[in-house]
Design brief:
Distance between the termini: 43 Å
Strand content: 15-25%
CATH architecture of the largest domain: 3-Layer(bba) Sandwich
Number of helices: 11
Number of strands: 21
CATH topology of the largest domain: FAD/NAD(P)-binding domain
Shape: globular
Largest sheet: 7 strands, mixed
Number of domains: 2
Structural class: alpha/beta
């Protein structure tokens, strides 16, 4: 697969291989020298790590600067490049690099990968997952296949972030974006009127553009430096995860635990096991700030205690753990706003776009990238800096809230509800035995419904969301 060399937007040069890369050249090969050096993948596609990443000298200028080459930033850059916008994509790390994540991709994420031009077929090395397996309550185990819908595919995926982010950044370069890695952005460049006109990196180099996209993750440094504070009332989560060699690596389900136990003792939080299809399973746990244990728990030790009580044949043991147990914060429900103001646009975790229902953020990050690119190209057509362009850019926030605002508002109520241990126990103990109820819950939590002419479950969920305000 050919790709332009980094720094040459829309170039026709062939993919420049700097070294043998086992992620691409050897199915199941590992990226050496990283925290996830024993985590393997068979996924094929473009790779940012295979491209020449020479950083230019002196100040630089473009139409759009995107800071952060995770799913949000790379998706934004890909769509912008396809629209013919001169876009520069910056990341502080060099690929391949790891990010703390569960790695699960529901059908909502799969749809966005397709729109980005990523081949997710088994022939391209992807391990397809047919649904969700839930543990808890009187049922013990409940398997639910992904719904068959007009709006979404009916399969999920798992892809380690060390692979996914490398793939998406390489895909952005193929589309025509200019990618520069090893560039640590330190602050926005703000003019006398308070408008963001670019960013400055750790070397003092200035990257100028009429629009800057902050896709720099949950630290949201650009947004913070520009005066965007987060809403302390919004839900917040924390999650830890590690990879384990396990015979469950090729199972057809992503697994979720609604209750965690250390023998007979009930532990706080929820858990997951997501199979990579290539020898390892991403196993982790999360907790919401509505829990009394939030902030007062050793999450790594909690994971060890929980997994010590799982069946030994699963392999979720310290002996089989191949990476450190690492954690990250989960900002939720659009907790940092405005999504656009004064030349700075927020996407992904920088804007708190993680769902409070299931902790998923990759799908919303990529969707936001498409919404952002549409707003920016509309602004370009009216002339950056004009009142018409500002109207188009401000419409980005309107579109995002129309798409997910009501869903997130319901999610806030959900978080408060399950924060009560008694209510959560009742829901798990009695709810899992009602299959029809669980079909509804599965669709609601994953935000998977047909918006038009759906089944009765879709109509119930869509009606609930209509009753919830989107703002």
């Amino acid at each position: 697969m050919n790709a332009p060399v980094v720094g040459q937007p829309g170039g026709t040069a062939g993919l420049r291989r700097l070294h043998w890369n086992p992620w691409v050249d050897c199915p199941g090969g590992a990226a050496k020298g990283t925290d996830v050096s024993q985590v393997t993948s068979t996924v094929r596609g473009p790779r940012a790590s295979l491209l020449d990443t020479e950083t230019p000298t002196g100040d630089q200028q473009a139409e759009v600067i995107v800071v952060g080459a995770g799913p949000a930033g790379s998706a934004t850059a890909t769509f912008l490049a396809r629209y013919g916008v001169d876009v520069v994509l910056l990341d502080k790390a060099r690929f391949p690099r790891d990010k703390i994540c569960g790695d699960g991709l529901t059908p909502r994420s799969v749809r966005m990968l397709a729109r980005l031009g990523i081949d997710t077929s088994p022939e391209a090395g992807w391990h397809h997952l047919k649904g969700l397996r839930v543990y808890g309550g009187r049922v013990g185990q409940l398997d639910m296949e992904w719904p068959v819908l007009k709006d979404f595919p009916n399969y999920g995926l798992v892809c380690p972030r060390i692979v996914l982010d490398d793939l998406l950044a390489g895909n952005a370069v193929e589309a025509g974006a200019k990618l520069y890695t090893g560039v640590r952005v330190t602050e926005p460049v703000i003019d006398a009127t308070g408008h963001v006109k670019g960013v400055k990196d750790a070397t003092g180099r200035v990257w100028s553009a009429p629009v800057v996209v902050a896709a720099d993750g949950n630290s949201a440094r650009l947004a913070v430096n520009a005066g965007r504070s987060h809403d302390t009332r919004a839900p917040m989560g924390v999650a830890v995860r590690a990879y384990y060699e396990s015979p469950k690596h090729d199972m057809e389900w992503i697994e979720s635990w609604l209750e965690l136990r250390d023998g007979t003792d009930l532990l706080p939080g929820y858990g997951w096991a997501f199979p990579t299809g290539a020898g390892t399973v991403n196993v982790g746990l999360g907790m919401l700030n509505s829990s009394a244990a939030f902030g007062n728990t050793d999450y790594r030790e909690l994971q060890r205690r929980w997994l010590a009580s799982t069946p030994p044949e699963w392999g979720f043991t310290e002996v089989n753990r191949v990476t450190e147990i690492r954690g990250a914060a989960l900002p939720m429900c659009l907790n940092r706003q405005p999504l656009y103001a004064d030349g700075l646009l927020l996407v992904g975790d920088a804007a708190g776009m993680i769902s409070p229902f299931n902790g998923e953020g990759i799908d919303y990050a990529m969707e936001a990238g498409q919404y952002a690119a549409t707003a920016i190209v509309d602004a370009k057509s009216r002339g950056f800096g004009t009142s018409g362009a500002e109207l188009a850019l401000n419409n980005y926030g309107v579109v995002v809230k129309e798409a997910w605002g009501s869903h997130y508002r319901l999610g806030k109520a959900f978080v408060k509800l399950i924060g009560n241990p008694r209510i959560m126990h009742l829901c798990v103990h009695y709810g899992l035995s009602n299959r029809r109820l669980m079909i509804l819950v599965n669709k609601l939590l994953a935000n998977l419904t047909d918006r038009h002419d759906g089944d009765v479950y879709d109509k119930i969920i869509n009606s609930l969301e209509k009753l919830a305000p989107s703002g």
